[in-house]
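Section 5: illustrative case.
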């Protein structure tokens, strides 16, 4: 549980950093932030709720409703990871493309 709480706190810090960096970001980076933020917030909120539920009802961990809730939260985490990965890859590709444009002096 402590590791989960630490990860949720890390997500909160990352959300805060992204919000602070948004105004100086490029248009595509702002788009990435705008699409990542709601999913990250949802994940943090759902995980916090799951921890609170488990703390109040430790014997109900095997209930189907709680198991479905955990499955849904895992899917949200997977979606967030995929979204972040795709934007990171986009950024790398864009950087490479811009480097070639400069090298080849291709007009934009």
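Designed sequence:
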């Amino acid at each position: 549980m402590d590791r989960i709480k630490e990860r949720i706190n890390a997500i909160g810090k990352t959300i805060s950093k992204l919000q602070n960096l948004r105004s100086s970001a490029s248009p595509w980076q702002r788009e990435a932030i705008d699409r990542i933020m709601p999913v990250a917030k949802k994940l943090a909120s759902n995980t916090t709720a799951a921890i609170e539920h488990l703390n109040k009802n430790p014997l109900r961990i095997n209930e189907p409703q709680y198991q479905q809730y955990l499955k849904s939260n895992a899917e949200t985490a997977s979606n967030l990871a995929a979204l972040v990965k795709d934007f990171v890859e986009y950024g790398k590709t864009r950087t490479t493309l811009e480097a070639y444009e400069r090298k080849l002096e291709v007009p934009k």
